[in-house]
User: What shape does this take?
Amino acid sequence: MEFSAQQIAHFLNGKIEGNPDCTVSDFAKIEEGRPGTLTFLANPKYAHHIYETQASIALVNDDFQAEKALPATLTLIRVFNSYSALAQLLALVESNKPKKQGIEAMSYISPSACLPEKEVYIGAFAYIGENVRLGKNTAIYPQAYVGDNVEIGENTVIYSGAKIYENCKIGRNCIIHSGAVIGADGFGFAKEGDRFKKIPQLGNVVVEDDVEIGANTTIDRAVMDSTIIRQGVKLDNLIQIAHNVEIGENTGIAAQTGISGSTKVGKNCIMGGQVGLGGHIKIDDNVSIGAQSGIISHIEAGKSIIGSPAIDVKNFFRSSIIFSKLPEMYRQLNRLEKEVKEMKEVKE
Assistant: This one.
């Protein structure tokens, strides 16, 4: 698919600097730009590449100021936010790709399942259980498993190898990537003497609209009631969400994060990679948690924290300056203690 600078600027409400008739048919990173591609500059660390790129069009922020001459072959399109503008263009291209439709041979669909008459895709070796309900434009890729009584909303995509256990509910416009497991039993056991006795997990998982769940992420069903992933949540790969957890609207969580049972996470929170949340705690709205943080207690709204156990970001960075000096400080303290002891002995 080919677009001119004029068409792109019109779509993004941007301002052209250069040749409005310049055309592109592909995307490229700014350091790997080549003729006929569109690139972007959002992070100032990559600014030096714009003076050497061979890309034909570059999206830049409105406030970008060139420090030297740009390539003569480069056309700029100034927009409010170049990274967001790139996302809009990528979404436009994605929406124009042909969609798979129809039911492929060797898939299993229970006679009691309710599917749209048209506008659905069921790939080979997919399994659709009893009383499943699928919305329009749903795509179930090969070897996906959809258990009994599952409901899946319109325009949702379940990629190959994803597993959705019985009674779970998935909203509209969701994406569940390969290897994700939705609705497995939570880690619930009661100790009886020297042995563990399994506690039946009778609840389900509810995933609301516009949620994306990364590859090999697992979300456990509740002991009773529901584990809930609210609207607009974005989950990276390799995340573990335990039973009876609730993740608030528009929260984003990076890879290898683990959230223990019955913890509640608020709206618009951000978590870096490898964050660990203890069980039965509450994270209020608009909290930012840095990578590899350990959280064991309630975090108030609007806080930015990091560390294990986590503390305020500013205090953490002040403390981090001291960390490397601790061995020398320890040696100095020992010397001072020895000197004080010698002074006391002299006086005595």
Notes: The first strand starts at residue 3 and ends at 4. The CA atoms of residues 93 and 135 lie 24 Å apart. The chain has three domains: 3-95, 102-315, 321-347. The chain is about 15% helix and 30% strand.
